Backbone:
């Protein structure tokens, strides 16, 4: 009995697992990006692991606004300083998919000057934190590191 | 309802076949001699129309596959190839795309008819549940089919719907990755959707056979909700139902042809003629019209997980309906209060549909600003959808269970052939006094 059940599970697993990401998909490498391509107050959208990634060069006013709001009531409270690398506060690098259902939010939209998701109306601030709407989490900050002053390695 | 067979093989071959595989007998008993209630109205013709829709989708779909390429790099171009180069490809694709909408128009009428006339009540619960399963399969099939052209709406529709499963705690992310076959909607997703889009219609056809089987076991409901009691209450399927169904199908096909030939893109979105681009979401993303009410319910709830649960709950209500409605009277023709709520329910569904097509913060009454509640102005479509969604759930979970216990129903006729209402004097006294005793 147990052997039969074990056999059934062992046979079922390959049929289930075949739908998970294949080896070539999993082997996607990390990318390097030259941040000098991004003008002040602008963002560049980079494709990383099939998804958009926002690299935003924030103005002083935008950073100040984000820092000033650190204490505001938020769904997913986080300090602006925890979302950027020390001394690199102007470079905000976040995943470009709304944490609600994965749409790509539009740059500069919404009342907090960050992003506005056109699908279900989520509003992010200039730190990519969720401020209004159905999204549960802040825009994801991926693992990345500055290789030099201008070169960043993501993933 | 299905009595003994009256089929008599006429030729020697028919007798030979009947002793080995009584398939002609099955057809005769089901579609010729089958007794149907004599009072069926045109709302009862949609079962036949739906069979026609399924057949049309299967045939056009199988033809489209002969010319379509299921690959993220070639799908969009192959659909354009069908539209521009394949002989009559435009016709077949427009029949398939608009056929999906026609299918849903017919199924919604079919479901509302069942709701109004109480066709889900004992002994038809399994018949109703099988119908709900068909509806679920239809939604899955339609969604996956819409992804295949790999346009902007296809792509981002797939992103949004697959991300719904990401709302589930703990396992959500693993499930979405598993559904995608990658870290985003991409070529593996397209290929598996194509495979399943080809499979599911045949599963629908299988459940349709069960649906018809269950129908033939318990017999058709009818506008009075009273079971046929004698031969006077029924007429044979042929010619009565066949002619009526045939006429209704013809009228329905006129509507279908009108869409296919004169406004083939009216129900679609222009954005889907732009190739899929994962880096840009269309500024106004909406699902196909038949999903709009559920989409509005999803957006009405400010919490992600709760919104997803509410949306699936809206469909779960349909499955639970036979046990939520406590009334002994089947047809709402004799339930004056339930009838009013039924029409409000239809309006609520339409309102949800309109809300689903609008941006959440758009104003319902232009130019009027009221006050903010839960971070949205009260004069907004998100608030309108909250009100309508509340009614949707209240209808199933509060109104139908309570109403059956409190409502004063009208007298139910003694039989189909002798309506009590038109001949009150002729009806036996207990028939009007105790409607709950009637089948």
Residues:
């Amino acid at each position: 009995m147990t052997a039969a059940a074990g056999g059934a599970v062992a046979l079922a697993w390959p049929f289930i697992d075949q739908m998970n990401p294949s080896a070539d998909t999993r082997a996607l490498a990390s990318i390097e990006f030259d941040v000098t391509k991004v003008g002040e107050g602008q963002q560049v959208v980079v494709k990383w692991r099939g998804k958009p990634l926002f690299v935003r060069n924030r103005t002083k006013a935008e950073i100040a606004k984000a820092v000033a709001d650190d204490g505001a009531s938020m769904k997913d409270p986080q300090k602006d300083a925890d979302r950027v690398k020390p001394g690199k506060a102007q470079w905000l690098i976040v995943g470009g998919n709304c944490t609600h259902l994965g749409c790509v939010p539009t740059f500069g939209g919404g009342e907090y000057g960050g992003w506005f998701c056109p699908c279900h109306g989520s509003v992010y601030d200039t730190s990519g934190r969720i401020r209004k709407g159905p999204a549960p989490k802040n825009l994801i900050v991926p693992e990345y590191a500055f290789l030099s002053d201008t070169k960043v390695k993501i993933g | 309802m299905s009595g003994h067979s009256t089929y008599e093989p006429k030729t020697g071959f028919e007798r030979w076949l009947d002793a080995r595989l009584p398939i002609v007998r099955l057809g005769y008993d089901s579609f010729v001699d089958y007794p149907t209630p004599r009072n069926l109205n045109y709302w009862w013709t949609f079962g036949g129309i739906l069979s026609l829709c399924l057949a049309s989708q299967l045939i056009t779909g199988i033809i489209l596959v002969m010319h379509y390429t299921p690959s993220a790099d070639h799908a969009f171009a192959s659909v354009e190839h069908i539209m521009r180069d394949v002989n009559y490809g435009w016709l077949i694709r427009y029949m398939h795309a608009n056929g999906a909408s026609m299918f849903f128009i017919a199924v919604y009428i079919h479901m509302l008819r069942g709701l109004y006339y109480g066709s889900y009540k004992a002994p038809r619960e399994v018949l109703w549940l099988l119908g709900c399963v068909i509806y679920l399969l239809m939604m899955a099939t339609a969604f996956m089919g819409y992804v295949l052209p790999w346009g902007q709406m296809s792509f981002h529709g797939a992103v949004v719907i697959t991300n719904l499963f990401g709302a589930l705690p703990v396992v959500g992310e693993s499930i979405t990755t598993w559904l995608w076959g990658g870290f985003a909607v991409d070529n593996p997703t397209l290929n598996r959707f194509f495979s399943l889009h080809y499979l599911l219609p045949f599963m629908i056809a299988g459940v349709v056979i069960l649906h018809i089987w269950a129908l033939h076991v318990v017999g058709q409901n009818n506008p009075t909700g009273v079971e046929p009691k004698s031969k006077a209450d029924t007429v044979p399927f042929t010619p009565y139902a066949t002619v009526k169904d045939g006429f209704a199908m013809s009228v329905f096909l006129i509507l279908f042809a009108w869409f296919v030939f004169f406004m083939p893109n009216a129900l679609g979105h222009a954005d889907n003629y732009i190739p899929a681009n994962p880096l840009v979401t269309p500024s106004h993303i909406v699902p196909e019209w038949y999903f709009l009410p559920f989409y509005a319910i999803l957006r009405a709830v400010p919490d992600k997980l709760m919104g997803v649960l509410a949306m699936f709950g809206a469909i779960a209500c349909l499955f639970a309906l036979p046990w939520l409605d406590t009334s002994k009277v089947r047809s709402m023709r004799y339930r004056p209060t339930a009838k009013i709520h039924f029409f409000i329910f239809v309006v609520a569904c339409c309102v949800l549909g309109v809300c689903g097509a609008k941006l959440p913060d758009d104003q319902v009454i232009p130019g009027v600003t009221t006050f903010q509640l839960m971070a949205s102005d009260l004069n907004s479509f998100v608030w309108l959808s909250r009100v309508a969604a509340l009614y949707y759930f209240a209808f199933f979970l509060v109104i139908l269970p309570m109403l059956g216990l409190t409502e004063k129903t009208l007298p139910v006729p003694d039989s189909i052939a002798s309506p009590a209402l038109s001949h009150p004097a002729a009806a036996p006294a207990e028939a009007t006094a105790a409607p709950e005793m009637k089948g």
Notes: Chain A has a mean pLDDT of 90. The two ends of chain A are 46 Å apart (CA to CA).
